[in-house]
Amino acid sequence: MADSQSILAHAPELQHHFDDSAQQFESSTLGMWIFLVTEIMFFGGMFGAYTVYRNLYPEAFASTSRFMNVTVGAINTGVLIFSSFTMVMAVRSAQLGRKKALIAFLFLTLLLGCVFLGLKYVEYHEKWLDHHIPGSGFQYEDSRYVRQAQVLFFLYFAMTGMHAVHMVVGVGLLTTLIVMAARNRFSSAWFTPVEMIGLYWHFVDVVWIFLFPLLYLIGHTT
Amino acid sequence: MTHPVESVKLYAAVFAALLALTLTTVAISKLELGEYNFIAAMTIAVLKGTLVVMFFMNVRHATSMTKLFVGAGFFWMAILLVFLLSDYLSRSWLPAPGWL
Amino acid sequence: MSTTLPFAPAEAHPNYLNANYGWKSWLFTTDHKRIALLYLFSITAFFFVGGAFAVGMRLNLLTPEGIFDHDTYNKLFTMHGIIMVFFFLVPSIPATLGNFLVPLMIGARDLAFPRINLLSWYLYIVGGIIALTAVVQGGVDTGWTFYAPFSSMYSNTHVILTAIGVFISGFSSILTGLNFIVTIHTMRAPGLTWNRLPLFVWGHYATSLIQVLGTPVIAITLVLLGLERLLHAGIFDPAVGGDPVLFQHLFWFYSHPAVYIMILPGMAVISEIIACFSRKSIFGYTFVAISSIAIAVLGFLVWGHHLFAAGQSMYASMAFSFLSFLVAIPSAIKVFNWTATMYKGSVSYETPMLYAFGFIGLFTIGGLTGLFLATMAIDVHVTDTYFVIAHFHYVMVGGMVMAYMGGIHFWFPKISGRMYPEGWAKFAALVVFVGFNLTFFPQFLLGYQGMPRRYAHYPAEFQVLNVMSSAGASILAIGYLIPMIYLGWAWRNGPSAPQNPWNAKGLEWEQSPTPPPTFNFEHQPVVNEPAYNYSGGESEVHIGG
Asked: Where does residue C454 fall: left (phi above 0), alpha (psi -120 to 50 degrees), or beta otherwise?
């Protein structure tokens, strides 16, 4: 099994409490997936609140959906999908041991993430100008729904804001990966962090895939 | 060691499909379909999410345990949403006639 | 079959305790056994902090008019609850005994993610310090349940600071659960199939599932609460169309499964103790294993029973009530199986077994009274009374804490390399049992007679029972202090323990020296027999690959 001889002779990235690289990789993958499951539940709480209030206040909801910028939202969706593509290409490059391509795709992914965040800022700024940020300065155009609109905008900011926080973390993680790649830490034999952070990035994309229709698309025509 | 190297073509095809579905869902949202707007949007979102999970996150080649955990995550969120709705939707129900 | 080494002083062989010295070797350790001890000391400290608040409460309740004003009393019960739930009970057994024993029991050299394990402890400490800061700054008065809109709009205590502390410690819990799940899946010794796993490991696996699936929901709930409190704009404020009951739904979606986090590890310990001190395999091993998973899963479907009187729809309440009856079934199965294990077993009465007996009796009472509460027609009368308080203290203190004490005594020799004084330990167990029942049984009566919970003052007719309860609490406190003294003494001065003082089955006892070396085993264990093979003739546990 794993006696002192084999420990000495193992791959450099193999940690000592694992028997072999396969066990270590299996652990890393399962561990990242369990973390993503916790993220599903974390966002799930907000999806729950959204579901409840959409159900309680359908007219207010339809009213507020006028103020969602579908164009920016759609572009952002495209940007994130593109970034998922570049991420998966980055993992593929790592698999093939192509350092330059790996760094290039990681950098592209990071860039696209920043584009997303930039567009998000534009949207938030719009809302700020419209006095739609919940709080003491909140104002709403339709006096019938001014109370519920605040609840719904609160949810909008909470959900997209939490998503944006996860994007920022993702950008940080990508930067770390780029630095590691530049320092030749990865090879076709070991590139686990690239794959794991890839999973995280795709997950953040999946959250947006659901946020986009729920917040931007539905209710326009109710 | 991890999984077989996929072709760029496959990834590009999934990417194209995701973009196409995005355009589709935006287009459908401009139509007046009542209840079906929601159903269509959610169906497309589930499709897109499945594509990302299966192909980009490689769950289709993953172990059954991984698949079980992925499924469990979404199922658990569904528990929360379903039971929440069961309260809010049934609050207005009157007691069954002849009961008590 | 050799299960004991010749008598050897604890310091003789290199082990995880003497491998390195100095504070850095402890604060930067990645050894799961050292991390378990770090947790043990910090959790014990929090236990006494939470206990101090309880002392304040029981002193106040000696007389109908009390000694504290209402605001102060509100802070006492709030902080007692928060500290005991989030900083003591939730981490207790998993972070101490679980961390120490899970790798040993499955024949692994450490957990899957040792550095994340250490991070887990630091997150716990940071969260705890933040919560204690809130305490020192004046505390919180919302109840540990943080109900909106009081917590989001009206309370002028340190709600956000406390919520941050709880939020951070929640991550500690998630990471521990994640670590256990991955470890149990990927690092079992050769031959250790799922149906040969010790029930301790099954119980911790089930607990970890709950930690991973449930804790994120309270995390987001606290975030939403904090945002609402900060921005005065929110989703729980009725004035803007928000629903305070939504807060309760989201809160209890985690907090009900949390109570199963706070009992499953105790049940896991009890299975080990009963098998060992009955010299018999646990009756219905498979049923007990599956029941742990069943409790974890069903536990997520019952949270609405906390909202029976809150405005939840009658139909949802009926569904939740029915599901709550269902979740009692796997717990009952365990109690029957433990009892059946002892039948025709060779039962001995060492301290861990005394705690196990206490657990079975007290958990049964606590669990049955849970069924009373799950019955809507009874709940409307006893909800928010001392009946509820008695119920949950029977399961959490009479159950979980007794299991914790039993487990600490059972594995004390393995952890420290020394034996504790059995006479004192038995005496303390008895004091705990008497003190506990005197404290909490009167509370069933008080609640049934209508005394509400969270009240600083009460009508004079309730005084006799309250005085009994407070008297019991002082005895209980003594019962908990005595082990602090003799265990602390025994750690340094106790007689050296043989490798397997209880002649127990299990890799941690049979294959690992006492105390274990840093990497747990001298040779990779291989498992060829079922768990608890007390009656198996020749041991088939092989040493070596």
From this structure: left
Is C276 within the bounds of a domain? yes
Cα C532 from Cα C196, distance rounded (Å)? 9
Q: Which of C220, C232, C249, C527 to mutate to test the interface with A (most CBs of A within 10 A)?
A: C220
The residues, ordered by sequence, that sit 6+ positions from C236 with a Cβ below 8 Å of its Cβ are C148, C149, C152, C224, C225, C228, C242, C243, C244, C246, C247
- In chain A, residues 81-110 whose CB comes closer than 8 Å to chain B: 81-82, 84-85, 87-89, 92, 95-96
- Mean pLDDT value of segment C94-116: 97
Domain membership flag for residue C17: no
Angstrom distance (rounded) from CA A209 to CA B3: 26
- B-facing residues of C in 287-346 (CB < 8 A) are 300-301, 303-304, 307, 312-316, 319
Q: A19-217: what fold?
A: Four Helix Bundle (Hemerythrin (Met), subunit A) (1.20.120)
Q: What residue numbers bound the domain in which C367 lies?
A: 33-542
Provide the token pair at C167: 């939020």
CA distance B67 to chain C (A): 14
CATH number at residue C66: 1.20.210.10
B79: nearest CA in chain C? Answer: C301
Half-sphere exposure of C147 (CA within 13 A, CB side): 7
Instruction: Assess contact for C534 and C508: CB atoms under 8 A.
Output: no
ipTM exceeds 0.95, yes or no? no
- Among A183-187, B89-93, C324-328, name the most confident range: C324-328
Assign residue C345 a region (left: φ > 0; alpha: ψ between -120 and 50; beta: otherwise).
beta
**Count of the separate structural domains present in chain C:** 1
> Could you tell me the pLDDT band of residue C539, with boundaries at 50, 70 and 90?
very low
Q: What is the mean pLDDT of chain C?
A: 94
The answer on pLDDT for C394 being more than 90 is: yes
| C70 vs C537, residue with greater confidence | C70
Gap between the Cα atoms of C274 and C278, Å rounded: 6
Residue carrying the six token digits 């499909």: B17
Residue C117 tokens, joined = 């394990």
What is the C-alpha separation between A99 and A105, in angstroms, rounded?
10
Q: Helix or strand or coil: residue A178? A: helix
- What average pLDDT score do residues C77-98 get? 97
Contact C461, C446 (CB under 8 A): no
**Residue A3 pLDDT grade (very low, low, confident, very high; cuts 50, 70, 90):** very low
Q: Is C353 on the interface with A (CB under 8 A)?
A: no
Residue C489 lies in a domain: yes
Burial class (CB in 10 A: 0-12, 13-18, 19+), C463: middle
Q: What is the pLDDT of residues C459-482, one digit of tens each?
A: 999 999 999 999 999 999 999 999
State the pLDDT at residue C355.
Answer: 98
At C12 the pLDDT is 64
Element (H, E) at C134: helix C114-136
